[in-house]
Each structure stands twice: as C-alpha cells, then as structure tokens.
Amino acid sequence: MILTFIGGGNMATALIGSLIARGASASDFRVVEPFAGARDRLAAAYPGLALHEVVGAEALLGADVVVLAVKPQQMRGAAGALALRLGGSVTPVVLSIAAGIRLADLERWLGGYARIVRAMPNTPALIGKGMSGAYAAPAVDASGRAWADEILRAAGEVLWVTTEAALDAVTAVSGSGPAYVFYFLEALEEAARAQGFARDDARRLAYATFDGAVALALDSDLEPATLRAHVTSKGGTTERALATMEAAAVKSHIIAAVAAAGVRARELGDAFGRDA
After folding, report:
1. Does any domain span residue 134?
2. Same domain? 39 vs 127
3. Are 21 and 122 in a shared domain?
4. pTM for the complete prediction?
5. How much is the mean pLDDT over the chain?
6. Does one domain contain both 158 and 182?
7. Neighbours of 150 (CB within 10 A)
8. Cβ neighbours around 59 below 10 Å, total
9. Which terminus of the chain faces fewer neighbouring Cβ atoms within 10 Å, N or C?
10. Tens of pLDDT along 245-262?
C-alpha cells in the first residue's frame, strides 16, 4: 500500500511511525508538508520518506490512499490542490482525519470525487492507543475500506459506523473523551492534595488508580455498574462518596455534557462546510 499524507503534523507522524513499526517501509510514504522545518523533522525520523512541498504529480504517483491530515480550517485549500490531480489513472481512496468536515463538503471541494472515508481519531492515537470512528462513502469499495481500516488501526481501535451523522456522536464521546478523563484526573489529584498529599504523590495516586481500574474493566466481562457495586460495601467509604456524587447528579451532568459536545460537533460541521 502506497500512502500520501497531505500534512505532516503530529497525527501524520504518529500514523507513519506506527505503520513502519508494523512492517511498512519508509519508501511506501509520501508526505506533502509546506513547512521546511516539519519536513526536516520527518526526514530525520524516517530516512527514505519522500517529502514534497506542494501537491504535485510525484506526490500522488501510485498512491492507494491519500490521507488528509490537515486542520479543519486548512481543509478547503488542501482539497482544492488535491482536486487538480485526481481523476483518470489517479483514483486513490481519500481518508480525511479532520474533525467536522463532512463528506458532501469534501466531495464538493474535491471536484465531485467521491472515494472518501471520513474518520474521527482522538489524541491517544498519538501513542497507538486511540479510538477512531470511521464512515465510508458508498463509492468506496471493500479494498479501499480495508486500506483505511489498516491505517487507522495503526493508531488504536476503530469503530465503523453506518451513518455519517454518527461521527458527531463519536466526536462527543471519544473525540472529546480524553479531556473528560483528564478533567476527572485533575479533580482526583486535587482531592488527594486536599487530603494532605504532595503534588507528585497525589498524581501517582490518581493516575495509578485510573489506570488500574480501566485495566480491570477491560479484563472483565462484567458491566461497569456491576464492577462499581463490587467495590461499594454497604455503609462504607465508597458508598458515602458515590452518594455525594449522585446527590450532585454527576452522572446526569456527564451525559448532558456529551450531548452538548454532539450539538457543537454538528454546529462546527455546518460552519466548516460553508463556502461563503
């Protein structure tokens, strides 16, 4: 599989590194990156990588997949440059990993080109622990979908959804989700410090507790509610803490927060897709 990345930032670098670690060769990749400093970093990290300043014929020659790895605000310009090279014998799958850019808008900017997969990875993808939602346009065949899946799985897990609209929900749950986890860790660390622990010890307690609890959940077939019940002795400390959270409607507020993120994802999709 020959891959061309439009954009050589953190996500592109992480995907290239993970794919090379899985057996790909640096010569399988072409990266279009306008900033010389970024090209220099990529050349140093992955000798043999083909680097280009602009989207030219050489950057796309033989590409099976073109990964659009630019910021949403840059997508229209990147797609416009790519559109000039698509068609005829150049028919790669276009994989967009930019948040909020809808297929209809991207297809329009690509001059009607429809072999597009849209994905929503999250930041743990940078260390191969990501969760990506993905949706393939009808024009993408089985091999194209398989290529996209292989690329995304280099960054972690992949959930294929049956409607593009579901990607807004993916954004709300897992795209924004790391921030929710960091928010909880921040609160747990502050709580430990309030109990008298030094900053480093408070952080160790918070991080190790969260890491261990997630590992235990992943290793179990039980529902989270059942695992929680196993830790909650009647009349004990955990019951008192959870009662305080329930009184403050913490769970309901989390659910409402995710719903609000989903609404904002749809709003951003509308805004990014405007041509005016």
Report:
1. yes
2. yes
3. yes
4. 0.91
5. 94
6. no
7. 16
8. 21
9. C
10. 999 999 999 999 999 999
